[in-house]
Amino acid sequence: MRSRVTINDVARSAGVSVATVSKVINGRYGVAAATSERVQEVIERLGYESSLVARSLRSQRTNVLGILVAEFEPFSTEILKGASRAVEGTGFDLLAYSGSGHSGGSVGWERRSLSRLSGTLIDGAVLVTPTVVEVRDDVPVVAIDPHRGPTGIATVDADNDAGAVLATEHLISLGHRRIGFLGGRADLESSRLREEGFRSAMAAAGLSVDPELVRVGGYKREGADRPAHELLSLPDRPTAVFAANDLMALATIDAAEDLGLRVPEDLSVVGFDDVPEAVAANPPLTTVAQPIQQMGVEAIGLLVDLIAGRDDVTEHIRLRTRLVERGTTAPPPA
Amino acid sequence: MRSRVTINDVARSAGVSVATVSKVINGRYGVAAATSERVQEVIERLGYESSLVARSLRSQRTNVLGILVAEFEPFSTEILKGASRAVEGTGFDLLAYSGSGHSGGSVGWERRSLSRLSGTLIDGAVLVTPTVVEVRDDVPVVAIDPHRGPTGIATVDADNDAGAVLATEHLISLGHRRIGFLGGRADLESSRLREEGFRSAMAAAGLSVDPELVRVGGYKREGADRPAHELLSLPDRPTAVFAANDLMALATIDAAEDLGLRVPEDLSVVGFDDVPEAVAANPPLTTVAQPIQQMGVEAIGLLVDLIAGRDDVTEHIRLRTRLVERGTTAPPPA
DNA sequence: ATGAAAGCGCTAACAG
DNA sequence: CTGTTAGCGCTTTCAT
Questions:
Q1: Which residues neighbour B330 within 8 Å (Cβ) at sequence distance 6 or greater?
Q2: pTM for the whole thing?
Q3: In chain A, at which end, N or C, are there fewer CB atoms within 10 A of the end residue's CB?
């Protein structure tokens, strides 16, 4: 079992010290052309590539940007696509870390992951939907759609409030009066804002919100299964449901099918996010689109600025949401 | 600027040596209950989390699985979704690395990334669409859709040949005779097989392939732009185009629109992959679906087995493809 | 039960 | 121009 080739192997094989090899690798001054050439040759021959780990333990910069996520699902992977485009040509590599592995409990995953990677492996990090944003001043950090509204940390988010109003107004304008709301996670700011937008749009239209019709689905497809069924099994069930994200909207459609309800004839459904899966649904999901990939792009831009030194400026970027009318909304049944 | 808290800080604060702290963290024997408790307390208070980097430099196992990609695009992110589901409950964390950053030239990125991360940071790696699979015996590796067909390395791929036949037969059965082919990258096995499937299906139907109608798009949307335009600007242009992946099929649809051609009335288009973007297209793309997320799941399964010790069994998993008829194919114009 | 010390692969002073 | 030396944060013998 041939082990990986280290700088030592190169040094020995080239007949120089490891320091010299290091200099050659990093293009530092003070190496004779002939020596440099010989070392390069050995590096080539041995297929040597310096270990990111060892290198980063010693030096400050690694030119690697971290994207920390709880898991790879439709939202975070859209962020990744944007981030990937954004780093192109900047000289940074991207490292996405999903660290919910051992520590079971999901809360605080971002703090753990950040601690494990920062100060060493990565030059800075983008936190995707963190729950507990602890302000640390040792690593440049940008949060996307964080737990709390903008605090001392740089953030990128979408106009959740306005988007929720858009969705609710759409349903109201179609003639719906009994509208259900399937919320996300109480600990996420985006979830709170979407509910707030829903309530304010209802109030503005002079409609009351039946507490029975407001449920929590936890932003996950499986988690939304039960509350969706409950909502649709109510004696006086809603004619429309606004789900706080697409995954839960999709779960609601499934539940409707389960219960023999047709969408949109018997039940209208609106989601939030506009992940690729939304348009792939059958019928395609009416939803509030947020520019997720663009959020990734903006986050990387902010992070690169932060790393470049301007860590005193706290920036908040808020992107617009818009309603995308597709096939899951219609006037309520007569 | 408070720096990250290290094991030294904990040791000092708890009045013990770093060795003892290390033992406590890793649950090693030989620590008094009282001491252990005190150290735990300090760890908690200081919010200490051991550095993955330092830890991995010293020890063999990190419990982190790597997924190495050239960039985060629709295909690789679907793999990530599957992998993310697959690691759940295994105790492994996932680290996705996109390392095309500095080294411009894309060829060999997987070897570089692997060298940079392996032996230290990760216990094993999944290589997504690698171009140069060099068999190294020091790290467990699984390749998804590699450059060459199955060699000594564990691989997961789809039945590219059969899928291409499906697509071509579909077009032929609709009545198309002049069918164009937009190939991927000559250096990828999947690309070669898809072309082969195309050619054999054409031959089986007694149709000849006009060399003019076979172009190379490189699997990327931008790269496919020009060849697509060329194909559709030919004096005797094809009535249908089979693109070797969805991104290029989408580019072909754009090109058609550019040129005033309606899809599918004037031109039929078939893709390959069935990424979420395919169904989101307008009209939704007819394509050959490969179970991409499932490929991620299988790859992780294989990798975990390999890490568990059975590195002598070389396994190849091949998944089925199927045709998904949507809105971009129709009989040729009369 | 605890700590001192070596060393993982690498970079960065500093000498020579 | 080149090599020696000292760590980066951590784990692991091996003494004590």
A1: B174, B264, B265, B268
A2: 0.91
A3: C
